[in-house]
Structures are given as C-alpha cells and as structure tokens.
C-alpha cells in the first residue's frame, strides 16, 4: 500500500470528528499562541522603535560628550553636515520646595535650547506651547516636571521650586517628551528647563557630572552610516559618541530583544508541557484504535501503511492546532493593543508580522513531531493476532532505532532554531538541557511513585480508600506518568521563576541595605569638600564617610591599539568610566599584584586597574591604557591591580591614577555617607542648604527603582510561567478525561462489592492529591536546582530557598490535580453498576 491509500483511510477516520483530540489541539494551540504572542509584541515594539527612531532620539542623529560642551572644531563639523543643531544638557540635581520644612527630591534635569525638540513633540498639561511654558510668569523662568515628581513635592502649576541657586515657576506638567526612551535608566523623574536659565544656578561648573547631547536635523537622504564613520575618523580620541535614528533607543531595543527571547524560551517550556499532553492524547487515541489497526493488518496493511495513516491524521490535527494557535497569538495582542500601548513607555506598531508566525509554526511542528513520533512508531507494532488483547500497552518500551534517531535529529533542529531565533546560545542550551533533564527526572519520579505505591498498597490494610488510591497510582498504563510529567514540568518552570525572582529581590532589597551607605553625594566642588567633611566628622550618627575626587573618561586605546580591538565588547570600554586619583593607598583597598606609587610621585603617568576586570580583558602589569578625559588623552602604565568590590554600593573605581597625571584637570568630588536612618534627613538638609549645587542620591531610592524595574521583568516571566502551568492543567484534564472510563469501571466494581460513594470519592481524591504532591515535590526540587544554576552561573548572585514560593508550588500541585480529578469523578460516581458491567462484557 502507498501514501494515497493511507490518506484515504485517514480521511475516513477523521470524518468521525475530533473526539479524543481536543486536548491535543488545545495543548498545541496554547503553546504556539504563547510564542506567537510574545513574538508579535516584540515585533510591534521593534517596528515602533524603527518608525519613531528620530523622535525617540530627538533628531536624525546625536553627538554626545561627557563633562563638557562641544569645542569649536566639533561644532563647525556638526554645522557643516546638519541643517539645525539643538543642544541638550542632562544631569542630576535636587529639586527643592521651600516650606516650613524644605522638601527635596532627586530629579533628572534636561536643560534645552529654543530649538528643542527637533523631532517629535512634547505634551504638556495644560496644553500650552513649550516656548510659552519656558517664559514663566514674567519674574521667574518657567520649568516643567513629570507628574510623579510634582506629586511627590506637592506642586501644581503656578508653584515655585528651586534647582541649585535658581528659582523656577512650574508652568505645566510634562506628560510626554519625544526623547524619553533614548535617555536610558534614570534615578529620578525629569525636570525640563532652558539651559540659559541655569546660568546663575551654580549647577553647570567645570568638573560637575553632566552630559551634552547635540541633536542634528540632517538633510533628507543623508547617509547615516557614512556620517558615523566620518565622526569616528575625525574625533576618534576626543570622547565623541555618535547615535542616529537607525537605533533611536538602543538600550531599550536590546532589552526588549533579550526579554522577548527569554519569554520565548519560557514559551518553549510550555510547549514541552503541551507536548506531554500531545503524546498522551495520541497514545490514548491509538490505544482506542487497536481493533482498527489489527483489522487493517488482517486485511493486508503493512507497518508503513499503519504508520502513514495515523501520521496523516496527526498531521492534519497538528495543522488545526497550529492555525488556532497562530490566530490567537496574533489576534490577542492586536485586540488588546490599546491597553498594551497605554502601559508601554515606548511606541509600538501592532499588526501581523511574518517572523513570529514562522518562528511559532516551526516550534509547533517540531514539538508535535517529537512528541507524536514515539507513540506512532509503537502503533505499527500491533499485530493482527493480538486483537482484543490490549496490544498497545504491551510490546517493547522503545520504538525502532530509526525512530529514536529521527527524534534526536528533530530535537537538535528545535534547539538550533531556538538558538537562531533567540540569539542567546548559552541561555537556550541551559533551557533545553533543563527541560530534558526535568523530563527525565520526572519520568523516573513517576516510575518510582508507581513502584512505591504498589508496595504501600499491599501493606495499607484497614484503610480501603488509601489502598485503592495507591493501587490506582501504581497501576500500569494509568495516568501517573502523564500527570507527573505535565504538571511537574509546569510547576518546575514556575518554581524556577519564583526562586530566581525571590533571590534577586532579596539580594537587592534585603542584603544590600545592610552594608550600603545612606547617601551618595556628587558634584562636590574642590573648594567645598573641606566644609562638607567638617559637617559630618563631628556627627555621632555618622559612622563612616568615604570621599574621592572623580573624573569621567573613555578608554580609547590599550597598548597603542584601539580598545575595542583588544577588549572586544567588554563593558569597561563601553561608554565612559569613573576615574579617580590618590596619593596614598586608600583604606580597605587590597593590592593583588604590583605596587602603589610612592608618596609625592612625579614620574611618568601610572595607573591601578581593577583586578577582576583586568583579568577579563587580559591586561598585564606594564601594559599601557589611554583614557580620554574632557577631550584630552592620558596614557598611563598599569603599575598595580587591586580588588574593587561593587556589591557594597560604596565608592568603586575601575581606574585610579597617580595624582601628577591629572594635575589641573577640572573635577568634582563624590562622597558616600553611612549614617543612622533617623539622622539622614538632618544631614541632607544641612548639606543641601550649605551647598545647593551638590546632588544627594538616597541609596534606598535607587534600590527601589531597580526593584521596580525587576518587578516588571518578573511579572512578564510569571505570565509566561503561568501559561506553561495552564498548559499543564490542560494536560491534567486530558489525563483525567482519558481515565474517566477506567474510573467508571472501578466505581461500578466497588459499588458491587459494597463500597459507599463517599469511600469511592475519597479514593479518587486521595489518588489525585498524592499525584499532585509527588509532582509538586519533584518540581520543587528541580525548580530549586534550576533557580540556583541561573543565580550562580548566569546572574552570579547568592542563592537561598524562597520558602513561601516553594510551599505555594506544592500546594498548587495538590490543588490542581485534586480539582481535575474531582471534575471527572462525578460521572463515574453516578454510573449504575449493572449497566457498566453489562456493557463491559
């Protein structure tokens, strides 16, 4: 027989409807839908970022400098390539409101000129022109604040606030501004003012921490790539950084890409859970087709014909599941696009995108093949002579070697596709290994549970309900394996996410404050540092004050070669780094190699480099490093390596240089203050009143900001894990539905032997609860192991078991199986024994 004959038989059998395949289709559709939905949202955001690249950036291109304004030669070049140039200055400061007790809040100040914004528009409340808002009330210049900052300070339009030594009148609330997404992570809400109005504020002095951004309105058709190359060639060593509308918000784009990739890997875990349901549904369906298969073989059908017949049927149903999943995956995000866009700080352009559909389809097809090939391969082994002998549950456990080889190839293709689409090789391999490992552990746990249950059933005399439950769990061909695999894998994903999320939150919000300072003070001018220290030295509530001069510079060369060629994409050479100098070796500093420079050193420039980062880059003692500071290049020899611990939230510099190297360079000081919580307000008040130009960053506020960001990430991963768990619950329902006929027969026999309905119901409930407990315990162990591996090897944080999350996993497993089991126990309990037993024979 050939494929046409198999197709004709398959078509006739499919006319009987989808009975027995609803769970198959639901599991496959849900897994595909989750992956397609994540991919659709990611593609919508990427399309929005591409479309609004210029508005997100605030212009067609941006030239950025650290700690300084553009020099004449740089301005001349920008003027030669651009039609218009808008200057933006960004820095942190304290917004102060004078009341009986002055109130202060950290703000990200964005000082702009009259051309701002070159692209996009600012939305104000009330709706007034931006130029009018900056004019103020005739006596004071105008300023704008984001609503969260105005609410925090209790301000309304018309009220007054101060930045440094300059007063402003709040003329409007800044609802939205065009270059919001391109500014990256900020510790405080934004205040928008004109640069010229800050002239008397004392905030923009040499050495203070600020960035200047020159937004360029380029002629139509300008070659952005060529201009970027020209900027790199002309100003390679001047600290100039170029960005353009091709990637208006690179940090956000990269974050969305990585988060989307991670969520798709979580979706693959859900697809694996659904695959267990798919395999179980196929096995159950083929078990019901034993008589048909035996009859076909009696009539001369070959093994190949049997395989092809049911392969075609499964293929058709797979296509149905894929189509439903793709429709849901595209339809749900587009249906809720207004709600999603309202909660996104970045633009998104929803629609139908080919890539997520192709990706989800490929994953769905490969998963369906992997999980259906095994039972299909065993179906062809049914012999005509074994008709009516439960042939499907017998025979060898493993299919023919060729099917094992094909399964391995399919799995390799699935992993390869995941690596290709996600772009994260390490995370993908860890996820794939974790899923396979979890399935193996859960399969062994299911086998162990069956054997232990059979042993306990023999000794559970006097407890009929428990003995019946244990006997059902240990029965061959029962629902134990399906329940433990499906629910266990879903709970494993949820447990891993819960442990990772809990440990990250503990590391940030619990462990760090025990060792972190109360405040970071920045922009302390050299002539202010002595008075600053005097205020703190005599305060008994202050336990420690660390201060250091600080400049910022960009590492441009290593041993005379471009830094990017030597260090690749290492984070130390990405952007500017803090740099300090010190005559003597600072307290609590440990030299790991080399020596500190002698007192009053006046020789060639020397440098001490962080030991860990130096090892990662491959630096050696005696190597030279060139740093661009304020447009000037300084080349120093590495004289020593030292330990730098960034986990304490204290002062830590990758680079410390000999004082003679930076003599005369404009700079400011930073300081960390460790104080009793009750004294923090008084310290801030005194120092801010004495030195209005300094900026205080409360460490707790910074931690809360990071926790808030992590909360959004954790919520997204929990939704993905919840989808996996929902798939697992569907598999549970499928297993319970498949076992309903067996439970009906059991109920009939037990009633005939005198068992009451309550005892039978107790047996069913105990069976479900014990299976849920077994799945929960195994999932908890696997989830804790997975959480530890991610925290230890990827995030490099400490790990401890988060018990509330762990207990919730176990309770959830018990409740899920109990609910599914009881849901399909009602009809077996209501069945009449005589009718059931007569039909059985």
TrEMBL record:
<feature type="transmembrane region" description="Helical">
    <location>
        <begin position="21"/>
        <end position="41"/>
    </location>
</feature>
<feature type="transmembrane region" description="Helical">
    <location>
        <begin position="259"/>
        <end position="286"/>
    </location>
</feature>
<keyword id="KW-1003">Cell membrane</keyword>
<dbReference type="GO" id="GO:0005886">
    <property type="term" value="C:plasma membrane"/>
</dbReference>
<dbReference type="InterPro" id="IPR003838">
    <property type="entry name" value="ABC3_permease_C"/>
</dbReference>
<protein>
    <submittedName>
        <fullName>FtsX-like permease family protein</fullName>
    </submittedName>
</protein>
<feature type="transmembrane region" description="Helical">
    <location>
        <begin position="427"/>
        <end position="449"/>
    </location>
</feature>
<dbReference type="InterPro" id="IPR038766">
    <property type="entry name" value="Membrane_comp_ABC_pdt"/>
</dbReference>
<feature type="transmembrane region" description="Helical">
    <location>
        <begin position="801"/>
        <end position="826"/>
    </location>
</feature>
<dbReference type="Pfam" id="PF02687">
    <property type="entry name" value="FtsX"/>
</dbReference>
<keyword id="KW-1133">Transmembrane helix</keyword>
<feature type="domain" description="ABC3 transporter permease C-terminal">
    <location>
        <begin position="265"/>
        <end position="378"/>
    </location>
</feature>
<feature type="transmembrane region" description="Helical">
    <location>
        <begin position="403"/>
        <end position="421"/>
    </location>
</feature>
<feature type="transmembrane region" description="Helical">
    <location>
        <begin position="307"/>
        <end position="332"/>
    </location>
</feature>
<feature type="transmembrane region" description="Helical">
    <location>
        <begin position="769"/>
        <end position="795"/>
    </location>
</feature>
<feature type="domain" description="ABC3 transporter permease C-terminal">
    <location>
        <begin position="722"/>
        <end position="828"/>
    </location>
</feature>
<feature type="transmembrane region" description="Helical">
    <location>
        <begin position="352"/>
        <end position="374"/>
    </location>
</feature>
<keyword id="KW-0472">Membrane</keyword>
<keyword id="KW-0812">Transmembrane</keyword>
């Amino acid at each position: 027989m050939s494929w046409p004959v198999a197709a004709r038989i398959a078509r006739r059998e499919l006319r009987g409807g989808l009975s027995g395949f609803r769970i198959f289709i639901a599991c496959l559709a849900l897994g595909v839908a989750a992956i397609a939905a994540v991919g659709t949202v990611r593609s919508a955001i990427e399309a929005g970022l591409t479309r609004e690249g210029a508005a997100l950036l605030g212009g067609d291109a941006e030239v950025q400098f650290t700690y300084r304004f553009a020099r004449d030669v740089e301005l001349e070049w920008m003027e030669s390539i651009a039609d218009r140039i808008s200057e933006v200055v960004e820095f942190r400061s304290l917004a102060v409101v004078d009341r009986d007790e002055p109130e202060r809040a950290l703000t990200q100040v964005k000082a702009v000129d009259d051309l701002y914004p070159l692209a996009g528009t600012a939305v104000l409340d009330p709706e007034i022109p931006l130029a009018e808002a900056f004019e103020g009330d005739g006596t004071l210049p105008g300023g704008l604040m984001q609503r969260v900052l105005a609410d925090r300070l209790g301000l309304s339009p018309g009220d007054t606030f101060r930045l440094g030594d300059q007063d402003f009148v709040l003329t409007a609330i800044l609802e939205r501004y065009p270059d919001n997404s391109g500014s990256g992570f900020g510790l405080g809400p934004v205040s928008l003012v004109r640069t010229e109005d800050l002239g008397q504020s004392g905030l923009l002095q040499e050495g203070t921490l600020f960035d200047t951004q020159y937004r360029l309105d380029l002629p139509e058709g300008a070659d952005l790539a060529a201009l970027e190359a020209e900027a790199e060639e002309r100003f390679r060593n001047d600290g100039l950084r170029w960005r353009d509308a091709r990637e208006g918000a690179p940090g956000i784009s990269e974050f969305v890409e990585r988060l989307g990739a991670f969520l798709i890997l979580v979706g693959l875990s859900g697809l694996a859970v659904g695959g267990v349901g798919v395999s179980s549904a196929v096995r159950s369906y083929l078990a019901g087709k034993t008589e048909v298969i035996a009859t076909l073989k009696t009539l001369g059908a070959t093994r190949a014909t049997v395989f092809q017949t049911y392969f075609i049927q499964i293929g058709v149903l797979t296509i149905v599941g894929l189509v439903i999943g793709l429709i849901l995956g595209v339809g749900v995000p587009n249906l809720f696009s207004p709600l999603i866009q309202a909660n996104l700080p970045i633009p998104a352009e929803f629609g139908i995108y080919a890539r997520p559909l192709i990706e989800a389809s490929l994953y769905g097809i490969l998963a369906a093949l992997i999980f259906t090939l095994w039972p299909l391969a065993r179906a062809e082994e049914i012999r005509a002579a074994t008709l009516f002998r439960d042939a499907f549950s017998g025979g060898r456990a493993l299919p023919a070697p060729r099917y094992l080889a094909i399964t391995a190839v399919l799995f390799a293709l699935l992993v390869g596709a995941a690596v290709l689409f996600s772009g994260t090789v390490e995370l993908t391999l860890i996820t794939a290994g974790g899923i396979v490992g979890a399935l193996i552990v859960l399969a062994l746990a299911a086998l162990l549970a069956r054997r232990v249950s059979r042993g306990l059933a023999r000794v559970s005399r006097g407890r009929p309900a428990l003995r019946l439950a244990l006997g059902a769990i240990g029965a061959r061909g029962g629902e134990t394996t399906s329940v433990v695999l499906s629910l266990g894998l879903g709970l494993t994903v949820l447990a891993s996410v819960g442990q990772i999320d809990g440990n990250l939150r503990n590391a940030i919000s619990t462990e760090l404050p025990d060792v972190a300072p109360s405040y970071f003070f920045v922009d302390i001018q050299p002539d202010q540092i002595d008075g600053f220290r005097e205020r703190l030295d005599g305060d008994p509530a202050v336990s420690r004050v660390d201060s250091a001069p600080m400049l910022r510079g960009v590492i441009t060369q290593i041993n005379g070669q471009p830094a990017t060629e030597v260090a690749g994409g290492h984070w130390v050479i990405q952007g500017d780094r803090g740099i300090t100098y010190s005559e003597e070796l600072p307290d609590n500093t440990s030299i790991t190699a080399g020596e500190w420079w002698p007192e009053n050193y006046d020789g060639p420039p020397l440098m001490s480099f962080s030991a860990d980062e130096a090892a990662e880059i491959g630096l050696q003692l005696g190597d030279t490093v060139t740093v661009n500071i304020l447009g000037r290049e300084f080349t120093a020899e590495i004289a020593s390596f030292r330990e730098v611990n960034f986990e304490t939230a204290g002062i830590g510099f990758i680079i410390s240089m000999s004082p003679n190297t930076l003599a005369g360079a404009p700079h400011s000081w930073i300081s960390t203050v460790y104080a009793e919580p009750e004294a923090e307000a008084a310290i801030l008040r005194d120092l801010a009143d004495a030195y209005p130009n300094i900026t205080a960053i409360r460490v707790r506020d910074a931690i809360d900001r990071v926790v808030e960001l992590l909360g959004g990430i954790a919520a997204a991963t929990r939704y993905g894990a919840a989808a996996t768990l929902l798939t697992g619950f569907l598999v549970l329902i499928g297993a319970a539905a498949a076992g309903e006929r067996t439970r009906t027969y059991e109920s009939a026999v037990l009633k005939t032997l005198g068992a009451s309905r309550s005892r039978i119901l107790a047996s069913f409930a105990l069976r479900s609860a014990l299976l849920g407990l077994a799945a929960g315990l195994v999932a908890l162990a696997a989830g804790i192991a997975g959480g530890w591996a991610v925290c230890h090897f990827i995030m490099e944080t400490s790990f401890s078991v988060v018990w509330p999350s762990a207990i919730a996993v176990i309770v959830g497993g018990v409740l899920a199986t109990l609910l599914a089991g009881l849901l399909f126990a009602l009809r077996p309990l209501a069945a009449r024994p005589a009718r059931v037993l007569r039909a059985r024979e």
